[in-house]
Amino acid sequence: MTVEFRALRRTYGATTALDGLDLTVAQGELIALLGPSGCGKTTALRCVAGFETPDSGAVLIDGKDVTRVPANRRDAGMVFQSYSLFPNLNARDNVAFGLRVRRRPTAERHARAAELLALVGLPDHGDRFPHQLSGGQQQRVALARALALQPRVLLLDEPLSALDAKVRVTLREEIRRLQLELGITTVFVTHDQEEALSVADRVAVLRAGRLEQVGAPAEIYDRPATPFVAEFVGTMNHVPGRVTGDRVEVFGRSLPVDGTAPGELVDVLIRPEAVLVTPAEDGGALILASSFRGSTARLRVQLADQSEVLADVPGHDAVRLAPGLRVEVGVVERPVLVTARTSGDQEPAVA
Amino acid sequence: MTSARFTRVKGWAPASPLLLVVAVAFGIPAVMLALGAFTVPGAPGEPGTYGLDNVAASLREPYLTKLLTSIELSAVVAVAGALTGTLLAHAVLTSRSAALRESVLSASGVLANFGGVPLAFIWIATLGNSGLVTTSFGLGPGLLYNFWGLALVYLYFSIPLMVLVIAPALEGLRPQWREAAQGSGASVWQFWRHVGLPVLTPALLGGVVLLFGGSFAAYATAAAMVGASVPLVTMQIADALTGNVLVGFENVALALSLDMIVVAMLVMAVYLPLQRRSSRWLR
To answer: By CB neighbour count within 10 A (0-12 exposed, 13-18 middle, 19+ buried), where does A286 fall?
Structure first.
């Protein structure tokens, strides 16, 4: 089943939540709607679920306009951000709720619930009530409930945001495994870029109700289409540079410009992992701080012109590249995005 | 004293003022009432004896009719008040008007505490035989001075009380539950049947018990409005205790009071286990 957002527009008073959103989710695809609070991602999802009606535009499921179809006839399973299990029903009855309202026989309901609870890794938790389950277990049950009626579309509204970090990682992998196993078309709303990049086939970045960019996670990260996407997804250094033709000079190197330069003096957007740091006694840069992250360490480096950049280096280099060490700073040779200069009339950064 | 025992005693210490008040204001009167109810007065100059005569008498005519009428009236008011109050609270809480919500909740706070002779007066002045509405619309006399008239007047304070009791519970119903139910294909009715009403059960039952108790114990409004035309146990107790019409029936009055306590306990016996079970859901 495909899901299509066609020129969706939704306003709340003076606030525009969706401003002409166009997006198509392919059959069996998991797409992540990513963006800051208020960008319209949840509103878009709720339009698919039937809990919101757009002011204009349409939602199509498998080519059929469902914009005015009531939520209980849409055939879309949804998992909510906060725990939405029915508190008066145990896990089995929560999962079987949809079958119960469809008056399926008890034996069939219980069999299906058992099957789904096993699928989400809770085969022995059927008798437990929501208050007897942890947050992660509750979301697993909610996922099983959303899948119980074999919906055409699975909608996930920040399902992991209330969970602790470790459970979040485990559960997102579980969700992805299930989604691939069942081949169900899935829309996953999140404000967590790492979550979006790690589970989705494609990521759609939204800003102020509009689609900024949609693409594979690596494409969004490596080749952001706009400065907003570059800033929102991952961390980005703004380094002064000077444009000459279709190249820009930064850190003493000339790099190809990705897109069009807004002028001669620009800020070059460089990822911390693209910044190279080498120990050098006579280096013009100084490591100010180091934050160890296990596989990597993030360094805060002061350049000769007193500006600062962030650099990610392998974790095993963290001891060698300690605060107070003089270094030389370089940059990986690859096309870079540039934006209008925001840092004054500085010369290109050198280190 | 062992340290565990000391800790236990220390744990109760902060509650001692409350326990003292309960003992003085509730415990001692209850014990005295029970003793009086089981005391059969002796001949003049002779001490009474303990026995079940008063309790047995309180469960025979003419007292039984009054007890049953009180139960019936309280049950009608409790059920009608709970239903109407819940529907009103739901309508107000789901309306988009914050002003309506605030004004209804504030008015409920005032009206829930409105009772006694002033309440009887406003209804007599409105729907009594010479009431404004009765005379203006040419309605017949006696509208108010019967069982249903009294029930109507009791609803005047019971419905606002129910609004106050049920409003927090209605606000506790998460929108996600309704949406999750809809997403599972449930209609509005199915959501209420399988989720909404079971979750609201403790608050609904609590409201019914409260309304039942309020009507069951009410005296002044009925006394001022209907007198003896609606036989109620509270008025029978008052008559017996004050020697109005009945003399020497004080212990039967205490037995009737004991009957009332037993009825209230029976109602609580149904309510508490249900409340305990369902309150776990909302933790």
So the answer is: middle
